[in-house]
Amino acid sequence: MDNSLTPLMSLQSVSKCFHTKTSKIEILNNACLNIYKGETIAVVGSSGIGKSTLLHIIGTLDKPDSGKIYFQKNDLFSYGDEEIASFRNSKIGFVFQFHYLLQGFSALENVMMPGLIAHKKKKIVEKSALNMLERVGLLLRSSHRVEDLSGGEQQRVALARALVMKPEILLADEPTGNLDQKNSKSIHALIDELNKELGMTVIVVTHNNELARMMKKIVTLADGEIIPV
Ligand SMILES: Nc1ncnc2c1ncn2[C@@H]1O[C@H](COP(=O)(O)OP(=O)(O)O)[C@@H](O)[C@H]1O
Ligand SMILES: [Mg+2]
């Protein structure tokens, strides 16, 4: 079989609900999505529809109630917790909507964290972290503590942290939500460069039309299904 036709990831009939005391919110209802290597996908849709939840499920940070998610031909949720964590650390870079940087640590230390967790040599990790901080335009801020940086700068540190291990798949939840137009443009260019340079697969949730249009495919969530726009 031609490998180029096999999706890198495949969501098959994925369903997810949240229960509150009084109601049940259906987020995904037998949703399907094939994600091919090197593909770029924008997820758009109104607030509260379930875009962040979808991204968390693709990134194995949350589990579906039913359905399967394959990475190549492996059923991810048949793995044990440790195997899932190791899959996530080695393959996925995540930029969260609320960036979750480690307070009290410098920008450089935050960006070095994934490499140190993966037991890479400190000197090598430091070099790649500085390189990535330079690419997001923050080299001169590398020794600043993250809480002393502006919202937009913190978002760029979070992006550098997601990209430092050159992940196969970048999942970014409104990565330019806090940025002005100039900074947004440079982040869009960086995502585009890394997609071309590394064949990095990119899935972004975004309200930014310019970023959405840069992606090869745009999908939206409606009635719990993932629908091409
Ligand atoms: N852990 C949770 N428990 C209960 N409800 C949740 C939880 N996470 C999200 N929700 C609800 O699910 C819906 C979708 O949330 P979310 O995925 O964050 O939407 P979006 O990113 O599209 O704005 C919202 O109504 C939200 O309040
Ligand atoms: Mg969201």
Explain this structure:
This protein is globular. The protein is an alpha/beta fold. The strands form two sheets. Strands 6-7-8-3-9-10 form a six-stranded mixed sheet, with helices on both faces. The model has no long low-confidence stretch (mean pLDDT 93). The longest helix is centred in the last third of the chain and has 18 residues. It has one domain: 3-Layer(aba) Sandwich (Rossmann fold), CATH 3.40.50. The protein has seven helices and ten strands. Bound molecules: adenosine-5'-diphosphate and magnesium ion. Magnesium ion binds next to helix 1. The site of magnesium ion has 4 residues, from helix 1.
Q: Overall mean pLDDT score?
A: 93
Instruction: State the helicity in percent bands.
Output: 25-40%
- Decide which structural class fits the backbone: alpha/beta
Into how many domains do the coordinates divide?
1
> What fraction of residues sit in β-strands?
25-35%
Distinct small molecules bound, one entry per kind = adenosine-5'-diphosphate, magnesium ion
